[in-house]
Automatic annotation (TrEMBL):
Name of protein: VOC family protein
Superkingdom classification of source: Bacteria
InterPro entries per the UniProt record, alphabetical: Glyas_Bleomycin-R_OHBP_Dase
Family annotation (SUPFAM superfamilies): Glyoxalase/Bleomycin resistance protein/Dihydroxybiphenyl dioxygenase
Length: 115
């Protein structure tokens, strides 16, 4: 079975959310289905999108698993966003970011301890 995902994040203001998620993800949206949704393609068959939905804004939780999470967090910091927390679970780390609505987006993956 092939697996893909199209995960949505409800926000109060699509335009300002697009700015924040563009900085987090390091690229502009791949496409806009309409004026209140913007979609980023993370990998083949894997998408994340913001949707303007004030009633549900702020309740989103997600994590993007990457090969080298510490380096990715450094790149995100260079674009002006800082994590609010870091979790360590064995050799897996997760850096937590919050958008303006309080949605949580983690950047995580396996880390290799320094020799």
């Amino acid at each position: 079975m092939a697996v893909g995902i199209f995960a949505g994040i409800p926000v109060r203001d699509c335009e300002s959310a697009v700015d924040w998620y563009t900085r987090l993800l390091g690229k502009e949206p791949a496409f806009w289905p309409n004026e209140v949704e913007a979609v980023w393609q993370l990998a083949e068959g894997r998408y994340v999108y913001v949707i303007e939905d004030t009633a549900r804004a702020g309740g989103g939780v997600g994590m993007i698993w990457v090969e080298d999470p510490a380096s990715e967090v450094d790149r995100i910091a260079a674009r002006g966003l800082q994590p609010v927390e870091k979790e360590q679970h064995g050799n897996v780390c997760k850096w937590i970011f919050h958008d303006a609505d309080g949605n949580e987006m983690g950047i995580g993956g396996e880390t290799v301890p320094a020799p």
